[in-house]
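Notes to self after the call with IL:
- keep both proteins in one doc
- input above output, always
- annotate only the second one for now

Protein 1:
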Amino acid sequence: MSRIGRQPVPIPEKVQVTVQEDNTVIVKGPAGQLRQQLHPDMTIKAEEGQIVVERPSDQKQHRALHGLTQSLLANMVQGVAEGFEKRLQLQGVGYRAEMDGNKLRLRVGFSHDVVVEAPEGLEITVEGNNAMIIRGADKQAVGQLAANIRAVRPVGPYWAKGTRWAGIKYADEQPRRKPGKQAKIGIE
C-alpha cells in the first residue's frame, strides 16, 4: 500500500468537506473555497473528522493515483485552513516592484514596465521595493503565479556584479554562479 495514500487527512474544526458522487470534492474554510474533481477510480470518504482515500486494486496506475489523491486533498484542506505563500526577491540596478490596484508593476531593465495581474483568489503584496509575497488558498495557483513572475527576469548564471546577482528569484533559492570568461581551461 502507498505510504502517503493510506494516511488519513485530518479535517480541522473550521473546515467543511463535501464529497459528491462524481468524486468532486468541495472544501470550505476561512481562507476560501476549493473545488476539484478527482479520478473516478479512487474512493474518497469524509467521516469522523478525517478524509480517507482507498484504491480498488494494486495496479501501477491505482498505486500512483492513491498517493496523488491524498496529497491533493491534504493541500486543499491546508489551503482553505491556513493558505499558502511564496516569497520572491528582486535585485538589480533600477529594478523595483510596486502595486497598482491588484496589478503588480515590475521595472526590471526593459524599455517598458511589465504588468502582472493577480488572478481571482490570489493576493500579491510588495514589501519595500524588492520583496514580493504571493498568497492564496490554491497551492498550484500560488506556485504558478510565482513561476510566471520569476520568468519575467530570472537570475542568470552569468548576471552578477561581484557577489551580487540580478533578476527575480525565490527567497530561499541560491542562484547558480558561473565564472564566465575568467575561467581558464587547462588544455595545452
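Protein 2 (the one to annotate):
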Amino acid sequence: MNLARKLKQRAADGRPVRVGLIGAGKFGSMFLAQLRTTPGLHLLGIADLSPERAKQALTETGWDADAVVVRDFSTARRTGGTVLTDDAQALIAADGLDVVVEATGSPAAGIAHALSAARNRRHIVMVTVEADVLAGPLLARKAREAGTIYSAAYGDQPALVCEMVDWAEACGFRVMAAGKGTRHLPAYHQSTPETVWDNLAIPREMAAKGGMNPQMFNSFVDGTKSAIEMASISNMTGLKAPRDGLLFPPCGVDDLPSVLRPATEGGVLEEEGMVEVVSSLHTDGSPVFRDLRWGVYVVLAADPSARGDYSRRCFKEYGMVTDPSGRYTALYRPYHLIGMELGISVAAAALREESSGTPIGFLSDVAATAKRDLAAGEMLDGEGGYTVYGRIMRAEDSLARGVLPIGLAHRVRLKAPVKQGEPVLWSDVEIADSDAVRVRSEMEAMFSSDGRAARRA
C-alpha cells in the first residue's frame, strides 16, 4: 500500500532504486514502457545478446535512446543514464545496482544469473519461470543465505496467484484451489509447431508477418507453460499438484466455486489445496461462458463447522457467487498486464526486502512427457517442440521415478524408447554436463536426502 510513496521519496532524495534488465524481449520491453514513467527507479543498464536490439526496445517503448544511453556504469550512476551491453555478468556486478530483472526466457541463463546475483548481493526478480521450476527452491535458498531477495515477477500469473493465496490465508480462509485460465483442449498436448496456428485460430500469414515464434507459442498451447506456472505456484504456496497432471476443466468465473471443490463434494479436485488451470473451451471446442482465459483465481472456503455459518451468511449478504452449499466462493482477476506490472516486484524487493513470491520448498515438478511414441536415437527438442510437453507432477513422485525435467529436455538424445504419454527419465537420455544440469542435480540431492521432496527450502 505504500510502494508508490516510498518510490517518490527515493526520487525526491536523489536515491533511486537502480535496476538492471537482462533480456530485452517482449516481457522486458513491457517493463521498460512503465519504468520510464515510474519515479524512484533508475534503469542502470540492459544486458542483451544484441545491444542494438536493446536500444530498439528503448525506442519502441518511448525512451529517447540517443539521449539516455551512456558508455559506462560510472557515467550512468552520475547522470541517470543507461548502459547497453552484451555482458550480463558485468551488469550484475556493476557498482550501485540494487535489483536484477532476469527476463531471458532461458532456464540455463536464468540459473546462471540468479547464482551471480546472490554472489554479488543483488536482489533478483525471476521472470524466467522455466528457471524457477527447474531449480528455484535451490536458488531461493542461495539468495537467502546471501541476504538477498529471490522473487517471482509481479504481473505474471504465478506472482499474482501467490498474492491471492496469501490474501485468502491472511484473512483466515481455507484455500481450495488457485491458478489461472487458458485456452485448452485435450488434443492440444500433441500440438506441434506445425499445428500451433490452427489450434490458436491464427492465420499462418499473420503469424509470419508478426514474427511469432511457433515453438514458443506452442509451449502455451500444448500445456507446458501452464504446468510450469502451476508448479511454480505450488512451490511458492504449498498448494499441491494433481497427481495425474492438470485437468483443465472447462469453467467460467461463475462456476469456479462449484467446479474447483473436492470431488467428494461434487467438484473435480482430488483433495483441497490444489493448483489447477481452467479452460475457456468446452471439450467440443465451444466457448465457455464468462471464461477466465487471461486471468487468475482463488477458490476459498469458510469454516466447515457450524461455527462457519456466519461467514457463509456474509458471502450471501455481500453478493458473492458460491457453490450450492454456500461454503465455497471465489475471487478472480480477469486480466494480467505481465511486464507492465513488474515494477511492483522491483520496488518490494528494494524497499521492503520482500518478494512477490518465492519457493518455500520443492513440492511440484514438470516432467518432459512424450507427445508420441519416441524411439531410441531421437533428439528431444524441449518446450513447445515436436517430441515432448511438460506435465506437472508432485516432486516426491518425480524424484522417486527419476524423471527428466522439461527444462533440460532440449537437444538431448534418447537412448531408450518412450511411449506416448509417459515421462522421459534421466536414464532414458544421453545428457551432457552443464551448469544447469549440475545445479538441478544439486537440488535433487538436497531434497532427496531425507526422502521428503516437500522439505522446506
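Annotation: The radius of gyration is 22 Å. The CA atoms of residues 14 and 195 lie 53 Å apart.
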